[in-house]
Amino acid sequence: MRKRDGVDTVPGGRKQRPQRRTRPAPGSRAPRFARPLTTASVLGWTALSAIVPGAAHLRAGHRRTGMILVSVYAVMLLGVLAYALTRENLLESLTTFADSGTMVTVIVVASALGLAWFALMVVSYVVLGPNRLNQQGQVVTGIAVGMLCVTVMSPFALVAQTVGTARGAIKAVFPSGPDSDGSPIAQNPEDPWGGRTRVNFLLVGGDAAGNRTGVRTDSMTVASVDIKTGNTVLFSLPRNLQHVRFPSTSPLARQFPNGFMAELPNGGLLNEVWQYANDHPDIMGGKNKGPRALMDAVGHTLGLKIDYYALINMYGFAALVDAIGGLKIRVEQDVKWGGLYGTAGTIKAGYRKLTGEQALWYGRSRVNSDDFSRMGRQRCVIGAFAQQATPTVILTNFGKIAGAAKRMAQTNIPEPLVQPLVQVAVKVKDAKITSLQFVPPEFWPGSADWAKIRLASKKAINDSMRPRKQAQTAGVSASPSVTGATPTKTSTAAPTQTPTRNSQKAGAKSLDELCGL
Fold this sequence. Notes:
By secondary structure, this protein is α+β, with helices and mostly antiparallel strands. The chain has 18 helices and twelve strands. The protein has two domains: about 140 residues, no CATH class; about 270 residues, LCP protein (Aminopeptidase), CATH 3.40.630.190. The strands form four sheets. It has a six-stranded mixed sheet. A two-stranded antiparallel ribbon has the order 1-2. The protein has a two-stranded antiparallel sheet with strand order 7-10. Strand 4 and strand 5 form a beta hairpin. Helix 12 packs antiparallel against helix 13. The chain is elongated, with a radius of gyration of 34 Å. This is LytR family transcriptional regulator. Pfam families: LytR_cpsA_psr (PF03816). It comes from Nonomuraea turkmeniaca.
C-alpha cells in the first residue's frame, strides 16, 4: 500500500477510502464534561442536588439516572401539594399525626429520608469526579460536602426527635386504656366518641405543694364541647360551693344524703371532695377515687355527665407559661400577691407580659379581692393561653412544652382518644366559646339553688348551639358575675377594669374586652 497525494492506494492503483472513527459504545468510558469542573462548581452542583436531587448526575452526563431522580422528587412534591390543596381544613387534617401509630411511622419515614438524603449527597459528590481536582480542591470539597451532609440530615432528625418527644409526652400523661372512672372507648374508629354529640371535661387546677398534705382543687371548670362544631360552654364552679349532692350511684350519696358534710354550717366545700374521697377508700370502694367523687359531684350539680377529667398542677402550669415565652395580659390595677398582704410581689398595672410565676399569682391572688373575682382572672389566664399558644409558638418551643406537660397533668383521657381530642381542640380554637359562672348575686355558694343551677346550665348549652349572631360574642367571657341568663352581643371596646371584686353588673363580656388581649 502506497500513499499518493495523501491518499492511500493498493497495488493496481485502486484508492482506499480513509477509515471513519467510530464512537465508543455507551458505557465504555466515563462521560466527558463540557467544561472542566472547578472546586466551586463541584460544591455548587452538590449543594443544588440537596434541593433538586439528580442535578449533579445531569451535569456529570448521567442523564438517565438524573432524570429518574428528578422525576421521583417531582412526584413526591406534587403528592404533597395535592394533599394540601384537597384538604378543606389542612390544620384539622394534620391532626391525624397525633395518633401513636402514625407517629411511629413518621419517625421511621423521617429517619429513612434523612439517610437517603445523606447518601444522595455522597453519590452526587462522587459522580462529579472530585478526583480531577488538585489536592487542595479535594480537601476543601470533602470537608464542605461532609458539613452539607450533616446539614441536610438535620431537618429529618429534628422531625424524628420532635415527634418522638411528643409521643413520649403523650404516653407519660395519658393512660394506655380507659379506667373505671371514665367513659369507655368506642370500638368504631369512625366514631371514637361512641355516638356522643357532646363531651364534658372537668378541668381542675390542683393546689398541691410541698408544705401541704394532699391535693386541693383550687379551680374547677367544666368544658362542655359540641363534637361537630367545637362550640364550647365553660362552667366555672366556686371552690367554696357548699354541701353539694351526689348521684344515687355514688357511694358518697349514701354517706351524705343531705349534701356533702351538711352537718357543718361553714364546711363541706366543693374543693374538699377530692381529698375526702382519697382519704376514705373504705367508703369509695378503692384507692385514688378523688377524681370520680368530684366528677360525680360536679356532674350532678350541673345536670351533666362528666366524661373525663384533667388535673393541672398550678406550678406545672407556670412552667408551661414560661415554655411559650409568657402571656400578654392587660392589668388595669396593681395585683399584689404572696403572704397575707401581698408582700411577695406586685404585678403592676399596664399591658404586661407575665412570666409563669406572675401568671400563676395573677390568677390566684386574693389580696384585696375574693374568690369570685379570682375566678374571673383565672379565665383571663386560660383564655390568654388559648389565644397565644399558636401552632408556631408550640412548634418553636415544643421541647420545653412537652417537658412541662409531663410534670403538670393527670387525666383519665385514654391514649387512643388523643388524636380525636386534638381534632376537637382545633375546632374549638375557631368556634364560639361562652361561659357561665355560678357566683353572687345570681348564685350563692352557701345556699345554692340546685334546680336553678341545672336550669341555667341547660339554657347555656342550648344557647351555644344557636348561630353565632344569636348568641354571645365569640370569646371566653371572664366577667366575674356572668350568669348566662341571656348571652348578649357586645361591641369591641377598651378593656374594662381587671376584675378585683365581684361588683360588676351581670352581662356577658368578651375575653378581649375584659382582659385586654
